[in-house]
Amino acid sequence: MAHNELSGHRVLAITANYGVEQDELTVPLRRLRESGAEVDVAAVSDEPVHTLVGDKDPGKTLRPTVELTKADPSGYDLLHIPGGTLNADALRLNDTAVEMVHAFTSSGRPVASICHGPWLLVEAAVVEGKRLTSYPSVATDIRNAGGEWVDEPVVSDDAGGWTLITSRNPHDLDDYLREVGAALKATPGRG
To answer: Catalytic site residue 116?
Structure first.
């Protein structure tokens, strides 16, 4: 993504305070901000977010910019849901996170999710009729929820009136962010 090509666009990244996969949160934050997008990190609490590397090794710690219950989804153009097994498992049990997904999908705004992040989409019951990818261990859950799971670096699906962008793991971040950038450019900015 080129410098300032996403100016005027706002992205909301949602996460638990522990267990998010470091690069699936920090790399999109950095690259989207470098491209001019405003990105907020909404965590379950206003405490620091402790990332992990490979679901086990301590990663970077960062401060959320807003608490999840105080984030207004109507002010954002795209929802980013990073993975990490512990993060995704916590988010799918969080009613506010599920409501965030519904706020974006019901208004036709794009949702992007990587790795284990689609567990939240399954919980929100929004994958039926969608073609998507994820970390392989989530495939059965996606299929059981009516989605078509494929093993590809990135999948963008516009079925149902909203765009869903998914990837498998941190190795797919370049492809993932290319599609996120394209979805944002196709969306009128809110900034």
So the answer is: yes
